[in-house]
TrEMBL record, chains A, B:
Protein name as annotated: ROK family protein
One Pfam short name: HTH_IclR
The organism's place on the tree of life at top rank: Bacteria
Family as reported in the entry's similarity comment: Belongs to the ROK (NagC/XylR) family.
Amino acid sequence: MIKALRGAGPATLSMLAERTGLSRPSTKDVVDDLTSLGWVEEVPPAAGTMGRPARRYRFRADGGHLVGVDIGAHNIRAALADLDGNVLAETRQAARPDAPLEERLAAIKRAVMGCLDLGGPTMSDLWMVAVGTTGLVTPEGRIIMSASISAWKDLNLAGLLREMFPCRVLIENDSRLAALAETRRGVARGAGDVVFLHIGRRMGTGLILDGKLHRGFGAAAGEIVMLPETRWVTAPDDLNGCAIVPKGTPIEDAAGFTLAAARNGDPTALDAVGRFTEKLAVGAAAAVLLLDPEIVVLGGGFSRSADVLLPPLRHRLERVCLRMPKLRGSTLGDECVVLGAIDYAIDHLDQFFFAPDGPALRPAVVPERTV
Amino acid sequence: MIKALRGAGPATLSMLAERTGLSRPSTKDVVDDLTSLGWVEEVPPAAGTMGRPARRYRFRADGGHLVGVDIGAHNIRAALADLDGNVLAETRQAARPDAPLEERLAAIKRAVMGCLDLGGPTMSDLWMVAVGTTGLVTPEGRIIMSASISAWKDLNLAGLLREMFPCRVLIENDSRLAALAETRRGVARGAGDVVFLHIGRRMGTGLILDGKLHRGFGAAAGEIVMLPETRWVTAPDDLNGCAIVPKGTPIEDAAGFTLAAARNGDPTALDAVGRFTEKLAVGAAAAVLLLDPEIVVLGGGFSRSADVLLPPLRHRLERVCLRMPKLRGSTLGDECVVLGAIDYAIDHLDQFFFAPDGPALRPAVVPERTV
């Protein structure tokens, strides 16, 4: 019923009965229940309507709030969204990869509180915090290890964050969430099988298979970076360490410098881009040859220069792939992980709370263990 | 209803009502329909039963027949099965990779007719012929290309076989069918995500994801062999061309000779096995790192020597994989593709004919276009 109302404008009971396949009396019962829960509200008739118009209802996307958090090695981003996934406020803080755990946790708290301050709602309006971060994350929200955040080592991150925020907490691998965002609001919208290449100072992949986030049997899917033949671990050095980058350029700006120079035809930069895309193409080709996806999305920090990277990547993939998938640069940029976290939270809402047999309570007041 | 009866022994109406969730009168109606179609029959009461026993019914697995065919470059195999997938008869013929199309088609016809002759049923008892073959096969049964059968080039194989056999014809990639057989009757039984390594004179992979055969957007999934870094195209030469293989050994026996010598500790043969498994491990690791499957199955011709190949393969995978899946040798041997073809045909039956809204006719008399 929520799906029949979400994002589709106000609807009458007859429209909802048709969309859901329920009888009109059953539709009325469900809508009444949802209204009393605060998830649905009646919309006043349009001004100037003649006679007695049919009552119209809409999903109350502002009936609760979600925060998506991207905990990277170098940045912590957060975004506040309504229950339709519309972003209302954002924060970003720089971080140090080797920051001690307490410092990183304090930054996460500031990120979420900052969003609430900016966006207006209070902690009690917060239904869910969904986190994307680097490394091996179990479905229960425990971090086994991460190659890029030193404090991430056999850590019950979900447990720590649940002590911090009095609401539901979800944790998932960042590249997987970014891939999800591409299929919900990005260039892969509606595609069934998607390979997301998460490229930047760190390289990763996220897979969407048959429309669903692919986690793998032990939550370790998407780690083609570990295959030595890809040389993905050191690939970013080709762009960061290019000879044309001026001495003293901060590491976070180095690759952008090289990519901009390549765009302007600098031969040294073009050579660096060539070496980088050659490595990128090995891992990308492995994924394409194995899975034959509908689309490959280039995302992450370097994807702002997708115009420079896509032509040489396409050229190399065409040489080895039996069938070329669509190849697109992400348009979600640095926000891909927070947006994916928000979309993941919305999926969780749809699955556990707005489902026909879901709990008839706001998520914030349902004890964690019932999910 | 067929699922509730298949493979589970005779059942009473009460048992069937419980298994299907239907009311008892509805169960009776469906069972009566299926009986009149010849798909279900009543079983006589056991001898010596006292009083009036409940009527018992069973699925008539012998009510129709299926043939699975494996069209390889060097061999054409076929197996006749009942509707439960039990194999009743088999044939094998040697073939030449460069045989002209007419010769290959004639061999396919002999393979199927040979199975019928051996097993007893006539052509009119044949419900389905399911074929596995090398190369890129579209869902409609057209072969785009094959690296190992020269006559397989932009060929409407399904169309040709439908002219040959008056029944339903299905065509699918052979490695995918072998992977399916492993999940239905092999070492991967019941696993959700499976990577099947099809190794022999030709190398391939088949993927089962979320319990389903993964075909890919353009039916080109599983082709990691095309990634140059795997060196899979030439990997079989390590075993076939080992110095210890006696001159004049037929190519089909060469690798077996090397593997047997390695089993006995011959250092030259062990070195060849080392080089082969090093290449095998690159493609296997790419699949494991990307997908994090529950199990990897080593199948195909060389898998008869899985005892020799698995330890060095495991050793190499453990060095690069974040999480080691189960690693097992196939027990289906050379029959893996024909068995997979039979299992694929049974899936097709379940989906299109035994489904609640399927056609109320034997597949052989339903026009092809209605499926």
